[in-house]
Design a protein that fits this description.
CATH architecture of the largest domain: Beta Barrel
Order of helices and strands: HHHEHEEHEEEEEEEEEHEEHEHEEHEEE
CATH superfamily of the largest domain: Trypsin-like serine proteases
Distance between the termini: 8 Å
Number of helices: 9
Radius of gyration: 23 Å
Number of domains: 3
Oligomer: single chain
Helix content: 10-25%
Strand order of the largest sheet: 1-2-3-6-5-4
CATH topology of the largest domain: Thrombin, subunit H
Low-confidence stretches: 1-16, 18-49, 81-122
CATH class of the largest domain: Mainly Beta
Largest sheet: 6 strands, antiparallel, barrel
Shape: globular
Number of strands: 20
Structural class: alpha+beta
Strand content: 25-35%
Amino acid sequence: MLDKASTPARKRMTKWLGAAAVAALIAGGAVETGLVAPNPAHAELRSMAQPVQGMPSFADVIDRVKPAVISVKVKVQNVASRDQGDDEDQFGMHDLPPGIQKFFRQLPDQFPNQGGPRGRGQQPRQFGQALGSGFFISADGYAVTNNHVVENASSVTVTMDDGKELSAKVIGTDPKTDLALIKVDGGSDFPYVRLAPQKARIGDWVLAVGNPFGLGGTVTAGIVSAQHRDIGAGPYDDFIQIDAPVNKGNSGGPTFNLAGEVVGVNTAIFSPSGGSVGIAFAIPASTVEQVVASLKDKGTVTRGFIGVQMQPVTKEIAEAIGLKEPKGALVADTVKGSPAEKAGVKTGDTIVAVDGETIKEAKDLSRKVAQVAPGKSLTLTLYRDGKERTVTLEVATQPKGA
């Protein structure tokens, strides 16, 4: 992995979707005002209308995959709660880097374990409950959810689609990608779904299934709006953006393609109001597959490390150093004794390719190196003094806390 000069800490991130508080379920006023009875005359007119030709029905897909989706209830320790008194920055935005502020502006912490920043007036609370979503990936009870859903969990209970409740244990978590693997007790024939072998394309239909605000089994539909979103959540951001309505409590739940394969794990939303505005972010299946395999095998994730601090190559920097276009990762510094330093990488070098694969931006280098097993060799293409040169190094293991 690479040490970026300034990587925002995940725990200082804005509020995540998951872990909707049980208290929200008894907020009768909110529920009552959210449900509107249709005008009977209008309802009759709708029933007489002919179905629109060409619009898909998702019923068959949902019938197949919905039994594999679970609601996750967590008892958490050391939950922080925010004072609901006067606070000129009730959103806690003063704690966030500018790059994150533009993506997330949310309501005050109304739910425990949201992964949001601690603002002024917060006091620690001894325990609490949180809700999220998840899905089975094997018949023997392994299930995927978000790290921020089960973080600090003292106990985990899942609710099946048929209402049956079972206990579960956390096998491993990866805060840097916000993924977690849990194991549900009580059976060896659980319904499960598969991760999509190919990434979704922009414009593809997607279906989000989960437990928003404790409403288990909720299905919403939309399309893939964008790929490769970096929202400042962590060093390996590579989110799918979808417009299917996603809310608090959907965290850890799956987004499916029309083949019933999981293309992403719902993790965060952009929301000025705290509810869905059609901009949600899901961890792609390719990332989920790699991380979950490592968590299942070792309970943790081992990543490659070459020991460089880097920064993006802007248009101005590219012009100054003679690059034809802004690309690659500019080396701001090297870690003493690291593989990069030993191989002769210097401050001011621009890494433009790894093993012949072009590095378009700094985050590409972070993700590429992190995926390489320690002990393997990498060839870096460097741009220095107007010329390209290559160096080969042996990837090390990412240090703890790096």
